[in-house]
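# step 3/5: fold
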Amino acid sequence: MKMLILGSTGMLGMALYSRAQRDGIAVIGAARSGADRILDVRNPAALQELILTERPAIVINTVAITSLDACEKNPASAYLTNTRPASIIACSCKEIGARFIHISTDHYYTGDKRKLHGETDPVQLVNEYARTKYAAEAFALTYQETLVIRTNIVGFRNRPDSPTFAEWSIQMLKEKSPATLFDDFYTSPIDVYNFSDMVLDLIRTESTGVVNIAGKDVSSKQEFILGLADTLHLGTSHTSKGSVKGLLGTPRAESLGLNVQKAEKILGYSMPDRQTVIDNLICHYTKEH
């Protein structure tokens, strides 16, 4: 089995690439630089050519502009990166009979706090990021052998100029930097390492449609960071509680909990709870630092 990972130098792409290699899968990574194949997914001819030339059995698309502000300021660029490639990939996969795994988002829900949202719950698209990702799902699902995965991933990218949420949180706690922690922004985070294993497990089940893969429970941003601090034995007196509603700029959905019962039924095992996610994050952080 040959697997093509688009965005293989990003946080998720690197984890998936490593897991695929570990499992003996013939994997090819594609990205704008530093990958097996150099590719800009905004070039539809190059994207199609890569898929038709390599003829993988599975294509995983992890590419996205995830900055809400960047998407809002330049919706055309967001569309060309987040949305249009899904259509090209779906058509190319159909031509060669490959399966298409499209990584989506949880930024579709607002106003219902800790609710766990199922795959068929109605969505609310409050910004360009959400619009481009939801449109990409629609494009991807025009091909019947597509699996769309909604999630909220946490992990490490090891790029000091662009820290992930987990990297920022740990650095802030260690340096005792003043920070406002939101107690009304809810997610179901899952570490990228567990997530990557579950994606490969889902691929083996040949599932299609939309599936949530996330942590088992809902945490506010404040609760998650306090959990990190407690596990790392770090103080939090330099932090304060605040509301996401106080943020200016791009509108954002804040009730992002995901119901994972469908994934658990398919996979036959439970998703990790918040403490398991934190423990796994810290385990990998300790190894890398």
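# step 4/5: annotate
The mean pLDDT is 96.
# step 5/5: archive (pending)
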